[in-house]
Amino acid sequence: MLLSRYFLPTLKETPAEAQIVSHRLMLRAGMIRQSSAGIYSWLPLGLRVLRKIERIVREEQDAFGCVEMLMPTLQPAEIWQESGRYDAYGPEMLRIIDRHERGLLYGPTNEEMITEIFRSTVRSYRHLPKLLYHIQWKFRDEIRPRFGVMRGREFLMKDAYSFDLDRAGAIRSYNKMFVCYLRTFERLGLKAIPMRADTGPIGGDLSHEFVILADTGESEIAYHRDFLHMSLAGQPVDLEGDLQPLVDAFTGKYAATDEQRDPAVEAALGEALVTGRGIEVGHIFSFGTKYSRPMNAVVVGPGGDSVCVEMGSYGIGVSRLVGAIIEASHDEAGIIWPESVAPFVVGILSLKPDDAACAAIGQRMYEQLVAQGIDVVYDDRDERAGVKFSEMDLIGVPHQLIIGPRGAKSGQVELKDRRTGERQELAVEAALARLLK
Amino acid sequence: MLLSRYFLPTLKETPAEAQIVSHRLMLRAGMIRQSSAGIYSWLPLGLRVLRKIERIVREEQDAFGCVEMLMPTLQPAEIWQESGRYDAYGPEMLRIIDRHERGLLYGPTNEEMITEIFRSTVRSYRHLPKLLYHIQWKFRDEIRPRFGVMRGREFLMKDAYSFDLDRAGAIRSYNKMFVCYLRTFERLGLKAIPMRADTGPIGGDLSHEFVILADTGESEIAYHRDFLHMSLAGQPVDLEGDLQPLVDAFTGKYAATDEQRDPAVEAALGEALVTGRGIEVGHIFSFGTKYSRPMNAVVVGPGGDSVCVEMGSYGIGVSRLVGAIIEASHDEAGIIWPESVAPFVVGILSLKPDDAACAAIGQRMYEQLVAQGIDVVYDDRDERAGVKFSEMDLIGVPHQLIIGPRGAKSGQVELKDRRTGERQELAVEAALARLLK
User: Fold this and answer.
1) CB neighbours (10 Å) of residue A372?
2) Which of A149, B132, B419, B429 has the fewest Cβ atoms within 10 Å of its own Cβ atom?
3) Which residues form the Aminoacyl-transfer RNA synthetases class-II family profile domain (chains A, B) (predicted)?
4) What structural domains does chain A harbor?
5) Cβ-nearest to B65 among A5, A37, A70
């Protein structure tokens, strides 16, 4: 992308309304723009990050056998009346009356709708298990929206739903999504700790939150320090095998959000206890027949009898993750994107675009990187070098190629690492080789 | 995709509520399911097609220098009051009151919102021209939703917006989108004819509809028969050059929707006149300062003066296209997808999945095609051959590999072309080579 043709309205001043660092940086980096309280437009830079996160979430859902579909944003009130949640949900549900005076609502979650689809299409246990998901905009009419996309009203969520014949099957589906979430967050460059959680308005008796570590996080957390070194990295996961041992390994150690902390257990942990702050980015639930029973989602079982299906639901806050990643990874100068979600992986800064040698090198590097399928942004604008440096750091491009007139004469450029700030002078070809490795 | 693990709830009976062929076939093929009047869930098969269309639309927008962003579904009432369209839009606008009694609406189009974003971020003519687009769900509260996704209430639209300093620039942007649309529809396998159009509630004095030919189309059209042979195919388009001659070539000949037909011109055309039926799938508008003036979207011009920007908007009905393509391409047995948007390009039918030779060949072909990045569905279910044949035709898979126990013994399979019905017996390797070419 040539920056001269892009739409990147960065801000010099920090907007007064932004209370947390991710909100400030997203506004300053020209990633989002508020249109109403808690409702945002995703400007081109922000959308690139959102789509990269979405893609990783999708790939991991697919890899674990979840099938993608797409439910609409607006739902009929009737199915929520059937499940009993229409009145229970309270004023966070955005209720809408259409021109024919029929009740609609902007879906805050989709248990009812997927149950309705399931019950009218699946008749036999032979078609179980089923794991379905969608990635769709949701709405919760928060009384006090704040923290930018971290607690917005219109937000993008991935929600998956499982349907099984019995409790054992439901646990297998739950374990699949548990491991899928660990892998998803690792690919996003995040350290996520699963914590036993309240089930709240979703219901059921088995639930985990996935909380990522961030000094600026919304809630206090406490966990066994072993979590700091636990990871799936390199471990192949056998999806047809038993995932229980893996789940046990990640749930066998103490980890609790503020409201669930246990002073006795923590005292016993002693030195092994770490406290810090975190942000919830995923939540999974197994809730048995809470929706299938009132909504009559039954299949014919192996014995010819009618069986109420066991269900679970599994959510990841896709738009919230954009803010959460920034909370976990930034410095004074701006955002530091993990490479997997960076809007651009490489940035080229031409310090003197009207210098012939600079222009030639910039253009050549740009074309070669684009040809290799690398997301690259080329700052070819007629701007001061200081502006270019600070904007490239603000928007958090991991690898930055700096082309100055002196180096350009001898075919040298600087390669800067956004995270460490390290700069290295390299010949053009060597710099390219480094980036294409 | 293994069909045994997919979610493809096809219907044997034709649903009574469906009046047109695309609606009937989308329901029967398990592509969509209605949740409220004019509001649909996209089941996995339908979503695959929707995403493929979306990708082609996106690639062509990008290729023509349009920059993607994403505006929210809900908009504040205020900006529509500013432009004067809030009251004018009528009951098709879904108006919403939130918990704080603030007025929102589910966006039916985005001229106001993009103008608001532009005026608060772009200050100088040096940042023009700008071409921005998004692909987002919209809502129009049709009084009588019908024809499935062809006239639904919640629908997916690509809408682009151009900002230029003067009329000449606005025409250049208009021409870019005009040619972009021709290319987009060709890639979708459609014959689209641009027709001079009314501007309606969007406004302005320059507008074209893109109408595709379909015997079952919603409206009567008449056009010069030369259109049947006009195409961009193979012509490289120089985006930096003058596109006016190309636009002139496609607008110089008579083409009119029912309400715009001119009996005198048609009489003069004689034999060159073709009449038929069509479906509108795109609409472009150049409307000058209709929104920038009331909303004060101005930039500093080259002379230091304040200039009201010239705007245009450009829409493609992405979800509507799914139905439109089916209207244009189907037969008695079901859908016939153009390869570019087929949910699966290759289908493997194992007529006897429990036969060892059939199973081995099916598995091998499946793995090889998947490894080559081809979208393939493998019907590995324990179903009657007749069911497999008719479902594969119903869902419209272009290339079908049929594995029977007799052929399997000698390493032979049948390759069937969905469009022509032609079947050819081939050795496994020869069939694969044909599909991988």
Assistant:
1) 11
2) B429
3) 38-338
4) 3-335 (3.30.930.10), 344-436 (3.40.50.800)
5) A5
Q: What does A389-402 look like in DSSP terms, one character per residue?
A: HHHHHHTT-SEEEE
Q: Read off the pLDDT of each residue in A167-184 and give the average, rounded to a whole number.
A: 97
Interchain CB distance below 8 Å, B42 and A137? no
Listed by number, the residues of chain A in 26-85 with a beta carbon closer than 8 Å to a beta carbon of chain B are: 30, 33, 35-37, 39-44, 47, 50, 65, 67-76
Q: How many Cα atoms within 13 Å fall on the side-chain side of residue A243?
A: 25
Contact of B36 with B45, CB cutoff 8 Å: no
Q: A132, B7 in Cβ contact below 8 A? A: yes
Distance between CA atoms of B356 and B350, rounded to whole angstroms? 11
Angle between helices B167-187 and B44-63 (to 10 degrees): 140
Degrees to nearest 5, angle at CA B149 with B144 and B155:
90
ipTM of the modeled complex: 0.96
d(CA B434, CA B423): 13
For residues A225 and A230, what is the distance between their CA atoms, to the nearest angstrom?
9
- Residue pLDDT, tens place only, A108-163: 999 999 999 999 999 999 999 999 999 999 999 999 998 999 999 999 999 999 99
Q: Express each pLDDT in A263-319 by its tens digit.
A: 999 999 999 999 999 999 999 999 999 999 999 999 999 999 999 999 999 999 999
Of A339, A373, A411, which is closest to residue A53 (Cα–Cα)?
A339
Whether residue B412 lies within 8 A of chain A, CB to CB, comes out as: no
